[in-house]
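Async update (no meeting this week)

Hi team, since we skipped the sync, here's where things stand on the single-chain job. The sequence we agreed to prioritize is pasted below, unchanged from the tracker. I ran it this morning and attached the output directly underneath so nobody has to dig for it. Comments welcome in thread, and please keep replies under the output.
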Amino acid sequence: MPGVTREQIDRAKQWDLLSYLQTYEPGELKKAGPHEYCTVTHDSLKISNGKWHWTARGFGGKTALDYLIKVRDMPFVEAVRTLCGESAPILSQPVTRPPEQPRAFALPEASRCATAAVSYLQRRGIDSEIISRCIQAGMFFESRKYHNCVFVGRDKAGKARFACLRGTVGDFKGDVPGSDKRFNFCFPANGPSRTVAVFESAIDALSLATLFKARGAATWDRGHYLSLGGTSPLALLQFLHDRPEIDRVYLCLDNDKAGLDGMARIEAALRDDKELQGRSFTVERKPPPVEHGKDYNELLRATLAGRPAPARGPKERSI
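Output:
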């Protein structure tokens, strides 16, 4: 096959993976979240924010060209010509592959020193004492290999069942393979508690705890701060099943369409859950005020930058 020109290569790189699959093989796409897709062939290959990441293999990319070469093993010249419309896409035919075997969950090896991870959270405005509590409780550490932040979720017995990763450089995000999203990251109450505040991410959960602590709220650590790892109700349902004493739930998801839709789905899931129908508890929506961004970390950073939080912000007595 003859070579390709620089112009053809540049044209090929303009294809993102989602657009390419929507155009040439829509049947290979499967919805995995409000703004996330996976592929039918590989459930652990997630597509979101213009990028893709294959969790089971530990690599990803930005373009459809990356995908065709790295995942489909297509030669470079053929991949470029395919994306330029000069040859028929091989994806137009079903690809039969053996199903991926689920991987056993295991936490990544921890770095001896969490300097990069701690510095990252501090740059996001998270209080140093709160970070220390997370480290001491084994809920947060820095991975040795890539120096990612690792947020650990544990079951009621204290066994690690989930971990999500956040890059300290760049915008990498992902879950450790084999993670059980029913047991997501939770910054626990300091003592018995009947309340839980629910967030889309661990950083947002720690951000509201930091805001309350900075304001001098005596009750800042009297409630649980639970991350869902998105907008799925799974972690909250499991949390409530495991803790029958909880009688007040605060939904603190992002103040955008995905977050508001997510809160509506969570409310419906709570109503429909048979194990919870005999329970008496209240559910309140507490998204952050939109004046300073869509999530609680944006509100925290705006507050630390000297922009006062609006009066309509969350009240300390709510947690």
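Quick observations from my side:
The two ends are 65 Å apart (CA to CA).
Residues 142 and 149 are 5 Å apart (CA to CA).
Reply here if anything looks off.
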